[in-house]
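tool_call predict_complex ligand=histidyl-adenosine monophosphate
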Amino acid sequence: MPSFATSPGTRDILAPDAARWRAFQQVFADGVETAGFTHIIPPMFEDLGVFLRVGESTEIVTKEMYDFEDKGGRRIALRPEQTASVCRAFVEHRPTTPWKVWYAGPNFRYEKPQQGRYRQFDQVGVEVLGVDDPMLDAEVIGLAINFYRRLGLSGVEVRLNSLGDSGDRDRYSAALHAHFSGNADSLSPESRSTLERNPLRVLDSKRPEDASLIAAAPRMSDHLSEAAATHFSAVQDALRRAGVDFVVDDRLVRGLDYYRRTTFEFVSTRLTAAHTAIGGGGRYDGLVAALGGPDTSGIGFALGLDRTLLACDAEGVFGAPRSRIEVFVVDATGGREAESICAHLRAAGIGSDRAYDQRSMKAQMKSADRSGAALCIIVGDDERLAQSVIIRTMEGGSQQTVSRADLVSHVTRMLGH
Ligand code: HAM
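tool_result ok
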């Protein structure tokens, strides 16, 4: 028989990590719903055209898209991110603005798998449509920072930049093109080819041979229109008022083409190598219009769940939640006692489990140990006859006999509920 394993870049998330993922999404939802965001669940695949709008010259579109023709002859793609889907939903449903939504779920990019980089990866994120106010930019960044704090992370740096309006961006791109192509011989071959597709992305090169030309390249800050510069300085003022530390990094270009004005990235200072960016976002004021909607400004971010949990591991915070099993029932009489005691405890909201197949006492005690339960309930022939049970603490091993009628109240008290 053939046997199968997960495809490259995908993983099974097993216990206890799966519960940690759920807790992560819950902490995020609690934070953003308190700030007025409502939940949106976009589909995991859509018309390829929706995602082409994230930038025809980006690697996400040219190299990494999971696109295919479905059985109805439609060009479909698995979503590589959710911002474009949210904007498509906005155009489709025309909700009143400001429209503030949050999402959580998997995305798909055909990347080279390595630690912190997967082909299926999860994000949580927010988007706000219909607001120009720079105060919102700072508020959105603050939401992410508060979330990181709630996880217990302390080593997260905010890198901030403005890519200007579309005219500024085009002028800057032309200036970069002129600078790099004038010195193309000293660029790496990879950067020479990037230069023809998207001069801004050359700034992202980490190749040592490109470093000196990048350091001497023109600066975005010198190409901002007055309106974009005013917006950017208002964002910085609002961040200072909110007590959010940030570093202005005018080499921050991001991997998607739709950004205008404010862009930012959250970087873990505790991770190394390729996966230090644990989240990112910015304004994308032209995207709704590019998807056939009215001129509408937008801003948001997405945080990589997989990478953020690696950062949590590196800082020793936000561990997996404890097992929900609080009581393990060991039945030496064949199993019917465990059956009724578990039913009784579960109906009272007490997490309980048991063994099956009439295993030996020793085997059942081993299962009790593995279950993570704080208490073990033991029933033998004597207890069955006397309608009592033995309650034993797993730590310390102290035990007492109580009547079946008082079981729930005893257990509740011992668990400290
Ligand atoms: P992004 O920078 O492409 O932005 O992704 C955001 C985060 O998702 C990254 O910082 C990273 O933590 C995580 N991530 C991306 N690719 C992978 C991967 N292959 N494996 C693991 N984690 C990954 C966006 O997706 C934009 N939609 C963000 C946004 C929202 N901009 C405005 N609104």
